[in-house]
Structures are given as C-alpha cells and as structure tokens.
Amino acid sequence: MKDIYFFSIIVIVFNSVFVGCTADMPLNIEPDQAKLEVVDTLKTRTSEDHKKRLSVKEAFIKLSRKELVLDGIQNMSSKDRRDLLQQQETDNYHLDWVGNYLQITEKAANKDDEYERMEQIRLAVFNSITQKDILFVSQELIDEQRHNTQIVDQAFFQYNNRHWENINYQLPLITTQTFLNQDNNLNINENHIYFNLKAADIHYLQAHLNHENYLNKDEIAQNEAYKVALIWTGNNFRLNRQAIVQYDISERHPR
C-alpha cells in the first residue's frame, strides 16, 4: 500500500513539472518545434543585425589622406581631428552639426578678402542592416558669405578591412540627361552632378546640375524638367526623379 501511495506522489510531481515547462508554449507547437524556435532566436541575437554601426565622428577620424583632397583637412592628424570633435572649434576650423550630418569649415584668414576660399567638408553616414554602412563625403571650397560653393570632390565609401572603398560605381547612374526631357537636344560634353544633404531628412540626397561647368549654362537652367534625388531605403539608394511643375501664380489666383 505504501508503494502504491509513493508511486502516486511521483506521478503527480512529474505531471506538475511537465505542465510547468509547457505552459508557455503555443498549443499548436510541439516541444521539438519550440526548441528550434529558441535556437533561431539565439542565432538572430548574434547576427549582423546587431553589429556596431559606424558613426560620423568615427568615420571622420578614420579617413586617410587618400580619401581627402583638401590640403588643410588632409594634413590633420588623428589627434587634431579628435580635438576638433571634442572642442567643436580650433584655431583654424570650427565644427557644426547640421541635422544628421557633420560639417567642418575652415576659418577665414583674412575677413577683408572677399575672394578668399575656405575649405569645408561635410560627412553623413547611411546605416544599413544588411550590408556595411555607407559614408558620404563632400569636399568643398566656399567664400565667407557662403554665396558660392565649389564642389571639389564628392564620393561614397564603405569601410572594409581597415581601408575605405569608393563605391560610386555601385550607385544609380545620374547624368545631365537625367534632369532633362528625353527630346532635349542640348550639346553637353561633361556631366557634373553634385549632391546636397538635407538636414531634415536623414535618407535624402538632392542632386543638382552644376551650371557653372557648362558654356550653355543658361540654356540648361531654362530646360531643366526634373528634380532628382537619391533616397536611402535602408539597404540601398533608389533614384527618385520628379517633374518640376512650373506655373504662373497670377493664372491660378486671378484678381
């Protein structure tokens, strides 16, 4: 009798433990399937989804002389760059955060010289879940009033094996014709496109034609028919091309 009583207690305890282990499982999932789901979750936690993202500050420090073309910034040491990032200003440069991107501008040596050009570099990082993050670098010369900006170099990079790889060739091709109607017959010998970062939108790069590079720049300006941009989707850049709507306000709002 004692043996039967002791065996009944063991059965009750075993059933309690089994029910406790399976109470949290969905009713339509077998224990083996649930175990597989747990394994998949652990794999996800250690996947590339949780890799360290590249920051703009880190990218600025890691840029080498090969990627930089402006003399002053090219000659800045890693310590000089760290000091600038920490102090926001040095004797020769000052730093600004403009929305999502970093802007570093050279100070004017002679404020009375209206023709003096200062160096400026702008950097933005486009983070990706499925691939390495992308760094956009714009290197420019500007005047003191910022009325004129000369684009010296613009490029997209990915950091790979301790060096930067230029990936411009992987981006959607944008040419002068991208901005114009298909029936446009302008004689254009060179494509010169530059991108402008938008502070309010971290996924947006507006493309522009640099009219100063063309002899017939006025004609091009009059015949531009599209606004062009690169839109970051989180995995790649998508080319966005929208018609420019032009109308006479007086026609829409007659007096």
Task: Explain what the structure shows.
The protein has 255 residues and is of the alpha+beta class. It is 27% helix and 28% strand. The strands form two sheets. A six-stranded antiparallel sheet has the order 1-2-3-4-5-6. Strands 7-8-9-10 form a four-stranded antiparallel sheet, with no helix packed on it. Strand 1 and strand 2 form a beta hairpin. The chain is globular, with a radius of gyration of 29 Å. Residues 17-50 and 248-255 have low confidence and may be disordered. This is Lipoprotein.
Could you give the topology of this structure?
Elements (H helix, E strand, L loop, with lengths): L1 H21 L8 H15 L10 H7 L8 H4 L3 H10 L5 E6 L2 E6 L11 E9 L7 E9 L6 E12 L2 E4 L26 E5 L6 E6 L7 H7 L2 E7 L4 E7 L5 H4 L3
Antiparallel strand pairs: 1-2, 2-3, 3-4, 4-5, 5-6, 7-8, 8-9, 9-10
Helix pairs in contact: 3-5
